[in-house]
Amino acid sequence: MTQPHVTQLAGQIAALSDGRTRRMIAIAGAPGSGKSTIVAELAKRIPGSAIVPMDGFHQDNDTLSARGRLHRKGAPDTFDTGAMLRVLQKVARGGAVSVPVFNRGADAVVPDGALIPATADIILVEGNYLLLDTPGWREMHEMWDLTVLLDVPPDELRRRLVRRWTDHDLPPQQALDRAASNDLPNAQTVMTQSIVPDIRLKSA
User: Between 37 and 180, whose confidence is greater?
Assistant: First the structure.
């Protein structure tokens, strides 16, 4: 994502603030699309903003193992969408709200890992599946004051996802297999089953 896109998007989001009502902004995209980077940059540029990450709502590994879904951790059905909706509704009402975050090193959710301050009036909600038109995710759509989908060409997305695993010291073929077995199917789900966003940001 180029810097001008970030600048323009930050201005559009900031303009939604009326100083009284919290605005909930959904920023979605496939794995490897650059969501976390974009959202962190937006938070720096938008006064009174705070971040709620979707990754804080991963189901725990014991639950996923019992369901036979640990190997697909990160797929849409491996998140606690009910808990996420309840937290988002609480955040939208205003005031200081604790939200969970995901500790990648421990591969576990940290309850109350971050605090949305009472002064925050722009909430940047970041995650792959926020715009999915499927049960569990569809119920969140009424929360959004603005929706953004990051759009990365498939070949570039594949390159990024494979590199993610080679950066973790996997050999090239294992990295490709790992991306193909989970990350790329999840990316396909995002790009084919999401609703039409208010803003679609293309990245070469």
Answer: 37
CA 144 from chain centre, in angstroms, equals 13
Query: Minimum mean pLDDT among 67-81, 92-106, 145-159, 174-188: which range?
Result: 174-188
**Residue where the block lists tokens 């969970």:** 100
Starting at the edge strand found earlier in the chain, the sheet holding 122-127 runs 49-53, 122-127, 23-29, 146-151, 199-202
Give the Cα separation of 180 and 125 in Å (integer).
Answer: 27
Answer yes or no: pTM beyond 0.70: yes
CA distance 151 to 186: 14
Classify residue 21 by its DSSP letter. S
DSSP state of 29: E
Contact criterion met (CB below 8 Å) for 88 and 24: yes
Q: How far apart are CA 113 and CA 7, in angstroms?
A: 29
Phi, psi of 49 (to 5 degrees): -105, 160
